[in-house]
Design goal:
Elements lengths: L1 E6 L6 E7 L2 E7 L9 H13 L8 E6 L10 H4 L4 H19 L5 E5 L2 E3 L1 H7 L3 E4 L4 E3 L11 H22 L2 E3 H7 L4 E2 L2 H16 L3 H15 L15 H13 L12
Parallel strand pairs: 3-4, 4-5, 5-7, 6-8, 7-10
Antiparallel strand pairs: 1-2, 2-3, 8-9
């Protein structure tokens, strides 16, 4: 087994890549922050995703979070310490990492043993298949933070649950329990926590036994069918609202309800 560990300035934060028997296993490890990723960690995740392709024996990627979390998404507290321009750049790095996982030319399986929130949900949805335990929780509560959803973010959710539920998740800040996410198709499989890792490993091995040509062809064909929108996000639409984002982040850090100001277009 090959193990590659990318450590961060935060000594308790790391992203590991294990390679064994045709499986590449990426684990996000920052348990004291609910596996939330800093801008640097998003950048590292994109690099590690590309590194998976360097070893021809890797046939399937398993993506998981350490412990009882998948990932809470981006580290919101970090945004309170940087400028709006730096925050916007952090979101660009985030989208780069998510798209890297999404566009890998090999099957990807998300293993979800806890909350997958915000960008963490997007990362989970970037995987071809998702397996969750009863502890899985899925949501995108960006309405409290002034984070603006572009069409690429929205499309990942709409493709699975439709436009109305997508809006509901943001409008209400609704968090789906594992059973709800499974019923809606956001989780392909729901298994007990005690069986999750073994189940994911067996599924990865089964997928890896299939024809690489067939796997690549179906992934490319499905992507061509579903990614037909001509003008998905290309970097021109901002991720953060300058006014609401500052208030939302401040409220998050201060552990209070945000006080947003209603605005009208003129």
């Amino acid at each position: 087994m090959r193990i590659d560990i990318s450590r961060m300035a935060d000594e308790q934060a790391k992203i590991t890549l294990q390679e064994t028997g045709g499986l590449a296993i990426i684990t996000i490890h920052r348990p004291h922050k609910r596996n939330a990723l800093t801008a640097n960690m998003w950048n590292q995740l994109a690099e590690i995703g590309q590194k998976v392709l360097k070893h021809p024996k890797n046939k399937v990627l398993l993506l998981r979070g350490y412990g009882e979390q998948f990932t809470a998404g981006s580290d919101i507290a970090e945004f309170n310490e940087i400028s709006l321009e730096e925050a916007e750049h952090a979101f660009v790095l985030m989208e780069k990492a998510i798209s890297t996982i999404e566009n890998l030319p090999l099957p990807t399986i998300g293993v979800i043993n806890g909350p997958a929130m915000g960008a963490g949900l997007e990362l989970a949805l970037a995987c071809d298949i998702r397996i969750g335990s009863e502890k899985a929780r899925l949501g995108i509560p960006v309405g409290k933070l002034g984070i603006t959803i572009n069409n690429k973010f929205a499309k990942r959710i709409v493709d699975l649950v439709g436009p109305s539920v997508t809006k509901e998740l943001v409008y209400l800040g609704r968090i789906l329990k594992a059973e709800e996410a499974y019923a809606l198709g956001m989780l392909n499989y729901l298994v007990s926590e005690s069986e999750l890792d073994r189940y994911a490993f067996r599924m990865g091995k089964l997928v890896a036994s299939m024809s690489p040509a067939s796997l690549l062809a179906v992934k490319q064909s499905v992507n061509e069918c579903t990614n037909s929108t001509p003008a998905l996000w290309n970097g021109s639409t901002p991720f953060v609202d300058k006014q609401d984002f500052s208030e939302g982040v401040a409220a998050f850090v201060e552990k209070r309800a945000p006080r947003f100001t209603r605005r009208t277009n003129s």
